[in-house]
Specification:
single chain, 878 residues, alpha/beta, Dna Ligase, domain 1, D-amino Acid Aminotransferase, Chain A, domain 1, Glucose Oxidase, domain 1, 5 domains, eight-stranded mixed β-sheet, eight-stranded parallel β-barrel, binds adenosine-5'-diphosphate, binds magnesium ion
């Protein structure tokens, strides 16, 4: 017969898939001799069996559970449902991965009108016995019949008001008895049935409620977002109760072996006397800091500290521990690897290496790259945050902290942003029409919709803070008012959002840059030792490059020359170049531009200090530079001395139906070779100037949008000739490469031919994704959320590379390129160069480098190191 139930003594921490995380750790703690109240775990296999049999708990499983319940009765010397000395138990859900949205825990199960009298007899404490009973009714009602907790809380508050009490602990046994009657009536009216008196009914209903909660929509969405297998199922832990609510030598608390916000190696935690379960986090009373326990119960404190030290050494990670003290006796109820801030994560990982508990590689693998983003972006100032008023909590849809003024529609948001305000867009839900408003806002708040709603998906795509589904606020978009339980806000009022926690706060909370300390530097040194991929930066200016270098960039992977063209003083010359109808006219404009470009390149080469700099020749559709309004056209006419009418005509001639598929990239050089020639000259002349300053320099000249060997061959020869002329004149030869951007599917499939003419390939995965899917990069947001919702796509292909399609093209290009040109240098310069999952893919393809925006460089470096450590580990395992 299959075994579905495990005594805590029969399990271990390795069994988390079978026993769930909570159950596995309860077993582990039991076996290393910690004071864990006895109990057993019904496995995740039982949950699967339950689901396979149409939500039916099989007789075999039930019988096996009963056997274990009897063992528990023997161990504790108590009897389930007994009228003199009843065994009370907790029923605790526990999946293999911690999962918000699952059912909560039920405490004090086994109480009914008779056994509560038994408990009073056994404990000689009517007050705490009734307290247990009323808590049980509330938790059972909440989790088994979804009777909202606040209705019970309200009844409790009413009673306290009537009695003029401020604290729950002031309630007498009689008060609690009355409260139980009220709760039972509430239960009947809400569920339409009596509160179950049979403890076995209570137990069966609770177990099936836990299994059912595996499939509740919130849990399903959470699993989808976190890529957790739907088939895992949850375990159920049944554990004998210990009581923290039995007077002032009892209590309950949470402890961390290190500080979870700073990572400091100091015991940290909070507790409440005469309390049960989650009272500490529920904010009923202000908890005491753990240090206070040292003064009041030194013995217990010392024991708890020993437990903490032992557990951390055992798990080799910072632990988050739940404990209860019953009349001076300590019990441990849970341990898990503690959640921590990004800063704490780094400090703890590095400290553990210093303490000889982890290897450097293990420390690197512990770092969650998604969390590192937090470190590099500003967060709320802690002191101001503590003083701030929390308004409500919604879903943490897209991480980051933001503060700004609220607007209720996209138009108002855009206008306010253009006035220079920081805008928080507040909507019931967003739709594709809101895109521009979302783009211009610092954060988005919606009252409706889940983690995959339009708002959530688009905000994540934009890397923008978003709290979604905050149903505790009411939004009237026409009246432009938002209302929470405690405050009413109107247009222009300040609001602060934490997209990582889902919390929203009244008013403006200052943001601070997170300090990255010595530990971070040290970790990043280890990262460099471990990684194989070179990480370069996408930088269009010396300033971007400086930021990138500060974060550890090893060169420039993409310098987009057209970004330099947009500047005030240059645009007239750019426009003149485009408008020009003769080559002579164009040459005049190009001569001006060349001097300006040289300035830029000199700055970048100087900052790069010998590191390779990949410069992409002019790429975008020409008309992007053209004057659009009449005023602009007339201004240009004056500047270059041409009739406005002629310019207007030329602008019209240049307009394209599909500019992204139009006259751009190397197609410009095929029709107007002088443009790229000018750029190549500017690059080499500035390289020579830098060389003369005594600084090493290494330009890579990149031809964009190549789709055939012939294109690159023609252009390369023109560029080479221009460069040779300069070298001859200057009596000097400098190293340089000419290569192509690979961003058109045809280029991937004919990469063997193209590689014969190119010294390097740089994969432009943005355009490659656009062209492979036929999705417009600029508009795809309007429908991509639906694709994710309907599971057509699991992630946004513009963020994380589509390995099956786009990835296959890249793989083909790599293989074919190497076939004809073994020395070919290959890297990636698209957005994907900063995405950890994509980086792992590129690592495995054996590319030399990835390149990304300056602030993503640390993430890319860590991801590159993790990819290579993972690969090494796999080699060892086969
Ligand atoms: P969660 O997964 O939400 O942390 P838990 O199952 O850990 O839920 O339980 C919620 C609270 O109840 C915790 O504070 C826990 O310590 C407490 N608790 C659980 N089981 C018992 C028990 N047998 N005796 C006393 N307290 C318990
Ligand atoms: Mg909970
Ligand atoms: Mg817990």
């Amino acid at each position: 017969m299959r075994k579905f139930v495990y005594h805590f003594k029969e399990g271990s921490k390795e069994m988390k898939y079978l026993l769930g995380g909570k159950g596995a750790n309860l077993a582990e703690m039991t076996n290393i001799g910690l004071p864990v109240p006895p109990g057993f775990t019904i496995t995740t296999e039982a949950c699967k069996d339950y689901n396979e049999h149409h939500q039916y708990l099989s007789d075999d499983i039930y019988a096996e559970m009963m056997t274990h319940l009897h063992i528990l009765e023997e161990e504790t010397g108590k009897k389930f449902g007994d009228e003199t000395n009843p065994l009370l138990i907790s029923v605790r859900s526990g999946a293999p991965f911690s999962m918000p949205g699952m059912m909560d825990t039920i405490l004090n199960l086994g109480l009914n009108d008779q056994s509560v009298l038994g408990l009073i007899k056994a404990t000689n404490d009517a007050r705490s016995s009734y307290d247990c009973y009323r808590r049980f009714i509330q938790m059972f009602g909440d989790v088994v019949f979804q009777i909202p907790s606040y209705r019970f809380e309200q009844a409790l508050t009413d009673l306290k008001e009537r009695k003029n009490y401020t604290l729950d602990t002031e309630l007498s046994a009689e008060d609690l008895k009355d409260l139980i009657a009220t709760y039972k009536a509430l239960y009947v009216s809400a569920s339409g049935r009596d509160f179950p008196q049979d403890p076995f009914d209570q137990l069966r209903l609770s177990i099936t409620a836990v299994f059912d909660s595996w499939e509740n929509p919130r849990a399903v969405v959470y699993r989808r977002l976190h890529h957790i297998d739907n088939q895992l199922g949850t375990a159920v832990n049944i554990q004998s109760m210990v009581f923290g609510n039995t007077g002032d030598t009892s209590g309950t608390g949470i402890a961390f072996t290190r500080n979870p916000s700073t990572g400091e190696n100091l015991f940290f935690g909070e507790y409440l006397l005469n309390a049960q379960g989650e009272d500490v986090v529920a904010g009923i009373r202000t908890p005491e800091p753990i240090s206070h326990l040292e003064d009041t119960m030194p013995e217990v404190y010392k024991q708890l500290l020993d437990v903490a030290v032992l557990l951390e050494l055992h798990y080799l990670d910072m632990q988050d521990i739940e404990f209860t003290i019953e009349k001076g006796e300590l019990f441990v109820l849970q341990t898990r690897n503690g959640k921590r801030t990004a800063q704490a994560a780094i400090n703890i990982a590095v400290d553990l290496v210093h303490e000889g508990k982890l290897t450097k590689e293990e420390a690197i693998m512990r770092i969650d790259t998604a969390q590192i983003d937090q470190l590099l972006h500003p967060s709320f100032d802690e002191a101001s945050l503590r003083a701030a008023t929390s308004l409500a909590t919604g879903l943490p849809a897209s991480p980051g902290a933001a503060t700004g003024q609220i607007y209720f529609n996209a138009e108002d948001a855009v206008e306010a942003a253009e006035r220079g305000e920081k805008v928080v867009l507040v909507r019931n839900e967003t739709s594709p029409e809101d895109i521009e408003g979302m783009a211009k806002s610092v954060a988005i708040l919606t009252a409706h919709g889940g983690m995959t709603s339009h708002a959530a998906v688009v905000a994540r795509g934009m890397g923008k803070c978003c709290v979604a589904g905050c149903d505790a606020i009411a939004i009237d978009e026409t009246k432009k008012v938002m209302q929470s339980a405690t405050a009413t806000l109107t247009e222009g009022d300040f609001l602060s959002l934490n997209g990582s926690t889902g919390s929203i706060y009244l008013g403006e909370i200052p943001l601070v840059e997170t300090k990255i300390g010595g530990h971070f530097e040290e970790l990043m040194r280890w990262v460099n030792e471990a990684k194989k991929l070179v990480v370069r930066v996408n930088a269009d200016s010396p300033e971007d490059l400086e930021v990138g270098l500060h974060f550890g960039a090893e060169g420039v992977g993409l310098c987009r020359t057209e970004h330099m063209f947009f500047q005030e003083d240059r645009i007239p010359h750019v426009r003149q170049m485009i408008i020009a109808e003769t080559k002579e006219e164009r040459m005049v404009a190009l001569a001006h531009l060349k001097e300006m470009q040289k300035e830029d390149f000199v700055g970048i080469f100087r900052a790069a200090d010998g590191k390779p700099v990949n410069i992409r020749l002019l790429d975008p559709p020409l008309h992007e530079f053209l004057p659009k309004t009449d005023r602009d056209i007339e201004k240009l006419a004056r500047e270059i001395g041409k009739p406005a009418e002629e310019i207007r005509q030329r602008v019209q001639d240049l307009a394209e139906t599909n500019p992204m598929l139009g006259h751009r990239g190397c197609r410009l050089a095929i029709t107007f070779p002088e443009i790229y020639i000018m750029q190549a000259e500017a690059i080499m002349e500035s390289a020579i100037q830098i060389h003369d300053e005594g600084i090493a320099v290494y330009p890579e000249i990149m031809v964009p949008l190549v789709s055939s060997r012939e294109e690159i061959a023609i252009i390369k020869n023109q560029l080479k000739e221009a460069i040779q002329t300069i070298f001859r004149k200057e009596q000097l030869v400098l190293p340089f490469d000419i290569g192509t951007m690979i961003e058109i599917p045809r280029a991937c499939v004919t990469a063997d031919e193209i590689a014969e003419e190119a010294q390097f390939f740089s994969f432009g995965t943005n355009d490659l994704t656009q062209l492979t899917f036929g999705f417009s990069r600029d508009d795809a947001n309007k429908f991509l959320y639906a694709y994710q919702e309907q599971k057509i796509l699991s992630t946004d292909p513009f963020q994380s590379i589509d390995q099956k399609g786009v990835g296959a093209l890249v793989t083909t290009a790599v293989q074919r390129g190497r076939m004809t040109n073994p020395a070919l240098k290959m890297g990636v310069c698209g957005e994907h160069g900063g995405d950890p999952a994509s980086i792992q893919f590129f690592h495995r393809l054996g590319l030399q480098y990835v390149s990304c925006s300056p602030y993503r460089i640390p993430i890319a470096r860590i991801a590159a190191a993790q990819a290579s450590i993972l690969e090494e580990r796999e080699k060892v395992n086969v």
